[in-house]
Amino acid sequence: MVNAHSEIDGQQPLRGLRVLLTRPQQQLPKWQSLLQSGGAETCRVPLMAIEPLSEPAATQAIRDRIMALAEYRHVIFVSQNAAHHGLDWIDQYWPQLPVGVHFYAVGAATARVLQAYGCSVTAADNTMNSEELLALPQLQQVELQKVLICRGRGGRPLLAQVLSERGAQVDYCELYERGFPVEEALTNLLQAQCGRNGDLVALHSGEALDNWHQLLQALKQEQPQLAATCAVLPLLVPGGRVGQLARDRGYPEVIVARNASDEEMLAALRDWRLSRNP
Asked: pLDDT by residue (tens digit) across 252-273?
């Protein structure tokens, strides 16, 4: 789908590409700026909306966890969203952070949010996933230690499963929920005339991949030919696990970044483009 004759130069190696941006609106500006600086066009088709939990039972559960923060030996934030929402709650009940609590972040960007607040953080920032966090020496011997995992509603259960198997007492603090605005995404996709030469889809998580797949199923009901065209667009994804999920679903061209950080996603895209246009 990429025009092999597009101009490639050292300053704008992405010229001739149009990248569909699928992250929630609040996480788009930096990523969009990096792509445009590299010469790419961009088009916003958010596949996820982040909303804080607001029902009374959910907010009371959050309040209970946050007020008991000092009881936990380890507190893990799985994403930037978890860090932002969690710190908003912590700020309400803890004028000073409790002593003796070890804070962890999945990803360098999540760690930066916590560090800016004043937390001393241990981060899994290479592959930015649960597996890397679980390999940290600090989380090997956790028998009878209390662990709090701050996350959105749902999500991967791996962290809790493995830490529980190691003998930890694990609780969740679910702070927000991820919605999929499918009708809005479908409208955006049609307005963007997706599927033209040079289009590429950037997906920052396995859930975003799921939503893209679901969106194409909805598109197939309205415009089957366009859905077929979009189904063969190159996908840019983070990490081997998400890359394999994409291949298993039949996507023919999958570009795998080291992790979901903007910098690593950009580096993988640049390398792929240059390999296609040496």
From this structure: 999 999 988 899 999 999 999 9
Q: To which residue do tokens 């289009």 refer?
A: 199
Closest CA to 265 of 115, 92, 128, 159: 128
Of residues 206, 271, 209, 267, the one with CA closest to residue 34: 267
The single-letter DSSP state of residue 100 is T
pLDDT average, residue stretch 202-206: 95
pLDDT at 105 over 80: yes
pTM: 0.82
Model pLDDT for residues 3-41, shown as the tens digit of each residue: 433 444 567 899 999 999 999 888 889 999 999 999 999
Contact predicate 2/234, CB 8 Å? yes
Which CATH architecture describes the domain 51-178? 3-Layer(aba) Sandwich (3.40)
Tell me if domain 18-48+181-276 and domain 51-178 are identical in fold.
yes
18-48+181-276 topology per CATH: Rossmann fold (3.40.50)
Residues in the chain: 278
Please report, for the chain, the start and end positions of each structural domain, with discontinuous segments joined by +.
Answer: 18-48+181-276, 51-178
C-beta of residue 73 within 8 angstroms of C-beta of residue 147: yes
Q: Are 175 and 150 in contact (CB under 8 A)?
A: yes
Task: For residue 119, give the nearest of 74, 151, 62, 163 by alpha carbon.
Answer: 74
The whole-angstrom separation of Cα 69 and Cα 26 is 28
CA distance to 49, 55, 56, 88, 216, per residue, from 62 (Å): 20, 11, 10, 11, 35
Alpha helices by DSSP H, the chain: 28-37, 56-67, 80-93, 108-117, 130-134, 158-165, 182-191, 206-222, 224-230, 239-248, 262-276
